[in-house]
Amino acid sequence: MLEASLIPLAEWIDRLVDWLVVHYGDRLGEINSWIVHKIGFFERFLSQSIAWPLMMLAFAALAYHASRSPRLAAGAAAAFALIWALDLWTPTMQTLSLMSVSLVVTVAIGLPLGVLMSQSGGVRALMMPVLDFMQTMPSFVYLIPVVMLFGLGTFAGVLATTIYAAPPLVRLTDLGIRLVDKEVIEAATAFGATRRQKLFGVQIPLALPNIMAGVNQSIMMALAMVVIASMIGVRGLGQEVLYGLQRQEPGTGFVAGLAIVLLAIVLDRITQAYGRRLAAQRQIAH
Amino acid sequence: MGDIVLRNVTKVYGPAAASVLGELPTGVTKEALLARTGHTIGVRDVSLAIEAGTCFVVMGLSGSGKSTLLRHLNRLIEPSAGEILFGDVDILRLDAEALRQFRRDRTSMVFQRFALFPHRTVLENAAYGLNLRARSRAERDANLAKAERWIERVGLAGYAAQYPSQLSGGMQQRVGLARALATGAEVMLMDEPFSALDPLIRREMQDQLLQLQKELRRTIVFITHDLDEALRLGDRIAIMNGGAIEQLGRPDEILQRPATEYVARFIEDVNRGRLLTAGAVGLEAVVVRESDATDAVLARLHGQPVPVAYLADAEGRLIGVLTQSTLRGAAFGSTLRALARPVPSAPRSTALERVLPLTLESDFPVAIVDDGGRVVGMLPKDRIIASLAAAIAPPARLPGA
After folding, report:
1. Which of A180, A186, A189, A191 to mutate against chain B (most B CBs within 10 Å)?
2. Where are any strands of DSSP class E within chain A?
C-alpha cells in the first residue's frame, strides 16, 4: 500500500484533509457543537414522554390534511402508537429529529440547486456528474473525512444524510421545471413576464408535484442512511439495529427495523398524498 | 398605436441561416433548400400592412408558416431578415427589457391549446397580464376587479373561482380571451384560438369575437386553417403557402378573384352562399324621389340592364319599386308613390343564402339597404345565382360597400 501509485490521489486527499483538520478543525468543531445544541433541543422536546400523544395527533392531522382520508390518519396514529408500545419512542424521535433537520438542509440546498440546473445548461452539465458521485460513492467514503473534521455524532450524521438524500430532490426539481408545458411558459413570455415572474409564478408552482416526489425520495433515502449513520455515533433507531447486530439479539434489531419501516410508510404516504393533491390541482384538461 | 407593417420578413431555420438568405429570391423551393443545405424556410419575404382597429386573418394549412409569422409580431420568434414596425416603433430594435414591456403593455395573445395557468383560478388567469404590472396589493385587487368584469363580458360570470381543469374547452378559451382582453393591449394575437373547439362552440366563439370587436376595435391578427372562419372574421385576409403569401385582400376579393391556382383550389368548396354578402355582389340601383317626374324616371331607366327604379322618401328610405311598364301605363297625374309596388329588402351584410328566399316573394330585384334603411343597391335573382356558382366575372362593386 505504501508503494507510490502513478497518480498518488489517495495521498493528496489524505494531506488535504489533514491540512483542513489542522487549520480549521477548531472552528468546524464550534459549528458542530452549535448545531448539535440546536438539534438536541428539538430532540429533547420530541423525546419527552408527554410529547408522544401530541406527536401522534400531529401526524394523524397531517395525514388527514394531505389525503382527506380518515383511514390514512388512523393508520398514521396506529403506527405511532405501535412504536410507543414497542418502547422505541425515544430512538424513533431521535431519528425523526435528525431526519427533519437533514430534510430542511436538503431542501434548503437541493431546491435552489435544482432550480439553477433547470435555468442553465452549463450548471446542469456541471451538476450531473456531481450528483452521480454523491449518489453512487459508498457513504463510508465520505464519512471518514466528515468524522475527522466534525467529530462523531449528530452533525456528521446530518451532513452524511444530506449528501446522500439531496440528489433525487435536485434531479426532480430540475426535471419538474423542465417538464412544465412549453405553451404555458410561452403564454407567460407573451404577456411580458420577467424571468423571475415566470420562475416563481409559473414554473416552480407547476413543478411542485415533481418537487414533492423529490422530497418523498429524499426522505426515503434519508431513512436508508439511519443505520449507517449510527456507525458514526448518531443516536436513534439505527443505533438499536446496530446493538442488535453487535449483541446478537435478533429481536432488538427486528423491532427497531420495524419502527424504521413504520416511520418510512407513514412519511411516504403523507408526502405522496400531498404530491397527488398538487398534481390533481395542476392537471390540464383539454 | 398605428398600423402594423411588415417588410420583407423572412425566417430561415438552420445552422447558418444568414448564408442561405441570398438564395431565396431565386425561387428555390422549400424542399430543395432543405435537401441541399439543411435549412427550412419558415416565412418567406412577407410584406404586409395591418390597419389599426381591424381584424387581419392569416390563413394557411399546417406548415404554411402562419403561426411562425404570428410569433414574429411579438418576437417570440426572431426573423432572419426584414422589418417589423408597430406604428413608429421598430420592434426589432427593442432590447430585452423594452421588448418585455412592449409585450406586456401593447400586445396580448390567445393560444390554440389555451395555455392557461392550471394552478390559478379563472379570475387569476384573467388578471395575469394586468398583475405582471402590479406593484402593490391594492393594485392587484383592483386588477382582479377589472378582470372579473372581463370574465362576465366573455360569458363566464360565476366561474371566477374555478380552476381551468374544471371547465370545458370552450369555456377555457373564453378565459384565454378574457386574459388577452383584460390587459387592454391594442394588439391581440390569436393563434388558431378556435381550432381545438367543436364546430358549434367554434361558431359561438366567432360570433362573440365579432360582437366584442364591433365595440372594442382592437387590432386583431387571427391565425386559422379554416377558410370559412377566415372569411367570416377577417376584414382582410392573407392566404399563406410554403411560408409566402399567396394572396392578400378582402374576403369577397379572395372569393371572387383568386389570384393563384392555389387560392382557387382552396376556395372551391367554400359555402359561398353563407360568405358572400348582398353588399359584396349587389349592383347599382336607380333610386328616385317622390318629387321626380315620371318621364325623368323613364329616361333614367332607358338602357339599364335591369330596368327598375327604387322609390325612396326624403331620407332615402325605401318605399317601393317602379317598373318601366307601370310607369308607361300610368294615368296622368298619378303620384310615384301610388305606382310603387312592394319589394323585399336586405341589409348590406346579409348573406346571399338569406337573400335567395326573398327573391321568391317578388318578381323584382331585392333592394339592398344600409343601416339607416337607405337604398344602396339591388340584387336580381340571376345575379345571386351567378355569384353562388364557382366561376363568375368580377362584379361591379357598390360604392362604399
Report:
1. A191
2. none
State how far residue B210 is from chain A, nearest Cα, in angstroms. Answer: 23
Around Cβ B73, how many Cβ atoms within 10 Å?
20
Whether B104 and B129 have beta carbons less than 8 Å apart is answered as yes
Can you tell me the distance from the alpha carbon of B243 to that of B263, in angstroms, rounded to the nearest whole number?
14
Which residues of chain A have a Cβ shorter than 8 Å from any chain B Cβ? 181, 183-184, 186-194, 197, 202, 205-206, 281-286
B42 burial type by CB count under 10 A (0-12 exposed, 13-18 middle, 19+ buried): buried
Query: B216 to chain A, minimum CA–CA distance in Å?
Result: 20
Closest partner CB to A205 (pick from B101, B119, B128): B119
Q: How far is CA B30 from CA B33, B43, B308, in A?
A: 5, 10, 55
| Cβ contact A192–B132 (<8 Å) | yes
pLDDT averaged over every residue in chain B: 89
Q: Please, what is the angle between helix B137-153 and helix B169-182, to 10°?
A: 130
Q: B82-106: per-residue pLDDT in tens? A: 999 999 899 999 999 999 999 999 9
pLDDT in tens, A101-137: 899 999 999 999 999 999 998 999 999 999 998 888 8
3-class secondary-structure state, position A1: coil
Radius of gyration of chain B (CA): 26
Nearest CB neighbour to B76, from listed A190, A193, A205: A190
Question: By CA distance, what is B120's nearest residue in A?
Answer: A282
- Say how many CB pairs under 8 Å bridge A and B: 76
Asked whether the beta carbons of residue B164 and residue A286 sit closer than 8 angstroms, the reply is no
Nearest Cα residue in chain A from B173: A286
Are A190 and B117 an interchain contact pair (Cβ–Cβ within 8 Å)?
no
Contact A187 B119 (CB under 8 A): no
The helix (run of H) or strand (run of E) holding residue A280 is helix A250-282
**Residue with the three cell numbers 409569422:** B69
> Higher pLDDT residue, A156 or B8?
B8
**Homologous superfamily (CATH) for A13-46+90-285:** MetI-like (1.10.3720.10)
DSSP letter at A233 equals: T
